[in-house]
Amino acid sequence: MDISTSGILSRQQNQYVKRTWSDPVWQIKLGIWLYFYLLIFEGALRKWVLPGLATPLLIIRDPFAFWIIITALRYKMFPNVAYIKIVCVIGVFSVITAMGTGHGNLFVALYGARTLFLHFPMMFIMGKIFTREDVESMGRAVLWIAIPMAVIIALQFYSPQSAWINRGIGGNTEGGGFSGSGEFFRPPGTFSFTTGLVQYFSMVSVFVLYFFIRSERLSKILLIGSAIALIIAIPMSISRSLLFNTIIELMMMVMAVSTKSKHVSKIFTLFGVGILAIAILSQTEFFKVSTGAFTDRFETANEAEGGLESVFVDRFLGGMLKALSESTQHSFFGLGIGMGSNVGAQLLLGNSNVFLISEEEWGRIIGEMGPLMGLILIFVRINFATNMAIKSFKFMRNENFLPWMLLGVSFLIFLQGQWAQPTSVGFSTIMGGMMLAGFNEKTNN
Known about the structure:
The chain is mainly α and 445 residues long. The chain has helices at 11-14, 24-49, 62-74, 82-100, 106-129, 132-158, 194-213, 220-237, 240-258, 261-281, 285-305, 307-325, 342-349, 361-397, 402-416, 422-438, and strands at residues 178-181, 184-186.
């Protein structure tokens, strides 16, 4: 399948952009930026600002995605992409089968299908309207936020779960931290759950390393400050996933610049600066404590799960193979879209802390939609991720490093990201849109 978004706006159209409310391009870009900021601060609203509205705020980004789609359709800017057509057909079919042979709850079905109808198409709209320059602007915003975010997670890490900074969803005084190491909990930052923090700082690693290559496009002070925030966040997150994602990004950067002699020196500079920063931070007590907690978590988890190789096989390859092998055991039309989500469990059983189908993404998809529709959606995601990887590699060879660097974190999100979880699907949408837009040339819009 072609991953083209039908090109960016023509030069003739761009000549008349006036950045006013009457300009549809400006409207859509504003909607995307609001979606982005709500993704970062949605958890803060649900925990600290409007805890009484925690439940409806769970889908606060959905109206913006809907508005962006309607605006794009109204002004004939909606991408003509095969992926969107296939996924929307799957969504319609899945809602019908959920009501006919599945769980029979319309609200659960619509909640599950909203990802296919709203967030997936929005990714391609972002890829069509945004330019590489817009993506770099969003990357700068990611890095600016990283510095205060590091301060927040430091406060959460060292504060008791009863502290205000550690309030859970809806103002829960039991705390929003997740089991970590010993007396320390994994902090969620401004997100509802620690998963959001990991995905956010994985994005930070993308732009820290990208702007290290393209250092002329970013303030040195911001680059250094966000890099230190990332180094601090890795142990304090007590997350192996964040460490692995950062290592992957380092490898992607080395691959990108190793064939370009003018950039090779930056590799040595990066590692030198990184080692110096870690050496200095290691002299501080707060960094020693967080590193100790992270190391303990790393060793304990590896022993329990059989080491890193076993973790990779079980979580990635094992999860895929298990979903495929069990696909014929499910009802042909599945148990109903939305049933595998936490919201679906809450609406159907009154308990959001259970997985009614599968905790793994592919198992959930096949269980909800059945082998036919489920496997089609999985193959769409595989095809999309593969085409993005191929195209990113080609652009990387031509020294457009942005899509390639985004691919390092995004590839597995496209394949197996938890689309039933609002924060996860939000990052999948933004990262996918960034990658598609990264292929566009800079324009003056």
